[in-house]
Amino acid sequence: MEKKVEALLCDTAVVGDCERLRELLAAGADPSLDFDGMPPIMHAAAGGHANAVSCLLNAGAPWNALSPSNLSARDFSMLNDHQEALDVLLIFAIQAELVLGTLACGGGGHGSASNEGYLVAMDLPLYGGDDREGRRKDIKKIEPMR
């Protein structure tokens, strides 16, 4: 019996073969579907295959999907001490959140995307320029971390 393309995608993610992943994705494999309870990105992250993680993310794999035991690809990379795969996931997640935050604050593609509303919502300082003596002045201050 021939394996389904999603099963092949998971098998390929386990070994981290980026070239084969691209072939399967081009053949119509869905990077968001799981075959055995975990999407392919979790298999790639668990094995520490940072390039495979990146390939799957770029193909539309959900960076924030959860396994039946409520673990994410990030969790699998951390549990197995795979820093490079973890870094790929974190950078992608931060970029996704920044885009979503910008869109939520009305910066949706009119050429005037302002991060001010997003930064206020995230409780980050807003740069207000320099005062007459050349000192930085923030529009909103944040409390130091304790």
TrEMBL record:
Keyword DNA damage tagged: no
SUPFAM superfamilies: Ankyrin repeat
A Pfam family that the UniProt record links to this protein: Ank_2
Coiled coil: none
Keywords: ANK repeat
GO cellular component: cytoplasm; nucleus
GO molecular function, one term: S-adenosylmethionine-dependent methyltransferase activity
Signal sequence annotation: none
Positions annotated as ANK repeat: 36-68
PANTHER family: GUANIDINOACETATE N-METHYLTRANSFERASE (PTHR32379)
Annotated protein name in UniProt: Uncharacterized protein
Gene source species: Platanthera zijinensis
